[in-house]
Amino acid sequence: MTNPDLQLDIRDDVAIVRLTRGAKRNALSDSLILALRNTFETLPSTVRAAVLDGEGPHFCAGLDLSELKERDAGQGMQHSRLWHGALDLIQHGPVPVIAALHGAVVGGGLELASACHIRVADRSTFYALPEGSRGIFVGGGGSVRIPKLIGVARMTDMMMTGRVYNAEDGERANFAQYLVDEGAAFDKAFELAKRVATNAPLTNYALMHALPRIAEQSADHGFFTEALMSGIVQNAPEAKARVRDFLEGRGAKVSKE
Ligand code: 1HE
């Protein structure tokens, strides 16, 4: 399925997925949501990490409001489930995804960013949830994912009062793990993706699929799941080879950057 509003480039083993609807501030129409889902579902097996980027001055203006007009309750629920399916494929898909944020990261755009594993923001970035003032509610998984980043109290405040976080406050609040100069988010995200792509695939799998689930479990269940995952990951030939490399002086040492 091709869509003019989404571009996929593969550079080495990193997929670059770019929203290319800059004229509409990368607003997410239904067809764009479906294209995102399809892209992550069908990434070539050689891809080991992905960068998610947006064309133009803004990462993403959220839901395409022009499509909101005529939905009854049932259709609204189905629409939300459409988003859930697509964004779940980003969070629990085949590869880690690093979001390169700039300009508006608002509404569904913030929901999309929060489904990614690492967020890099440049200094032009701002975060908001205008759903509150538009008389609607989040529907793209934001009520589950955003409080995990910033907490329920901050999200409630954003939606109730329309509060907008700038890039610096946003980093402090935990929206993004990296804050870089204006225009530098993509390069940093790509550099991180290349590094992530060199990890053993099972380690990345455990980080994407086990870690968030363990965080939801009781301590007792979490310790047990951790032990299972730990046993499986270290049993992989790649893990054994990497440990042997270090013990025989070939593996990289941990060092301050
Ligand atoms: C749009 C959208 C959109 C821009 N849907 N068309 N999201 C929002 O409430 C955010 C609404 N957008 C904005 O506040 C601003 O557009 C921005 C701060 C993102 C950018 O401002 P600016 O001055 O750079 O651009 P602009 O002139 O406002 O917009 C350029 C065009 O994009 C314009 O169309 P044009 O035909 O007049 O050129 C805008 O109408 C269009 N545009 N944003 C449709 N969102 C799963 S539920 C999720 C729920 C939500 O995400 S609700 C929050 C929606």
From TrEMBL:
Similarity remark: Belongs to the enoyl-CoA hydratase/isomerase family.
Family annotation (InterPro entries): ClpP/crotonase-like_dom_sf (IPR029045), Enoyl-CoA_hyd/isom_CS (IPR018376), Enoyl-CoA_hydra/iso (IPR001753), Enoyl-CoA_hydra_C (IPR014748)
Name by which UniProt lists this protein: Enoyl-CoA hydratase/carnithine racemase
NCBIfam families: PRK08150.1
GO MF, one annotated term: lyase activity
KW Hydrolase (keyword) present: no
The UniProt record lists the keyword Lipid metabolism: no
The species this protein was found in: Variovorax paradoxus
GO biological process, alphabetically ordered: fatty acid beta-oxidation
Keyword list, A-Z: Lyase
Pfam families with a match to the protein in the record: ECH_1
